[in-house]
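REVIEWER CHECKLIST
Item 1: Sequence provided? yes
Item 2: Single chain? yes
Item 3: Sequence as submitted:
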Amino acid sequence: MNFFTKKKKMTKLTVILFILNFTFTTLLLSGIVLKESREMIFTLLITALLILSMSLAIFHSKKQSFFTFTFLFIALISFPLIWFLDNGIDGPAPFMFTVIFLIGVISFRKRMRIFQLTLLITIFVTLITLEKLRPDLLYRCSSLSCVNTNKLAGLIIFTFAIIFVSFTFFRRLEKEEENSSRYAYYVSRENSKLKELANTDQLTQLPNRRNIEEKIRYQYKVSRRKKRKFSFMMIDIDDFKQVNDRYGHLAGDFILKEIAKIIKRNIRDQDTPSRWGGEEFLILLPECNARRCATIAERIRKAVYDHSFIYRNMVIKLTVSIGVSEHDFRYPNPRKYIERADRAMYISKAKGKNMVTVVA
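Item 4: Structure as written out by the authors:
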């Protein structure tokens, strides 16, 4: 189980840590600190504010950048003050420097990150230099409770910073994983569209020649294993050239689309119609002998004959010639049977068109 599946448990754990740390800070405020000085009260108040802003940044992913900016703003403003008011380099300020550095690195983009880290390092070097040159500017507490409180305040800030950085890092990983999954889905969808475009005749929306040839090869293997016959039907629109010459090529396109719809309405669900080329259509009929195929072909022929093609208020009447062949595995190459269906279709045309011919 990865981190993302345990996110809720980690969130609960962080809530508990937040409550414990915040409660302990409050106890320090009400107990130890009041015996020391106002400077220590200021330090722990800043600690509480930093913990609060980090916690809000962890739990409000939609407003994480706002609360992170709030944290860094408070930290950068209070960092020099805490340095001078609370033991300088021996106080909680170095912890704050580390925390601000870590959160700045992980939270901001390149330009903002460079600006923030440059500013932070400049402030840090300046404060160390001032401490060495003017140690009298610093307030130093000497009691054990004061020293321990300083260390505890720094550790509390540092602990929560580590939790914040961890959550931010894993949340970023999760977002990248989501983006990666979304991109993979998009690529897969686009590839499916491209494949569909490559395998579909754009005018009739039927499988194109390459597509039907792949299906024929697959059907040949399946039928041979099951020892079941399948058939081909070749359909050609009679006198289609005259339609183009008389009504225009747009009318021809309209006719092709309408013929494709009629074919799909009159075949079985398992049959595959395709546009073979020009005004020719090839249909693959699995588990279908020549007799059954001829019945379906006759149904298509009659449907076309009875249909009135209305194009721009003009009624166009058409017929089709159909050839049928049955694949009986006498020849290993399915193309041989496609040629037989094509020859049968030309026999229909030679006999007067508008008929179905079956070749043995």
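Item 5: Key structural point noted by reviewer: The chain has eleven helices and seven strands.
Item 6: Recommendation: ____
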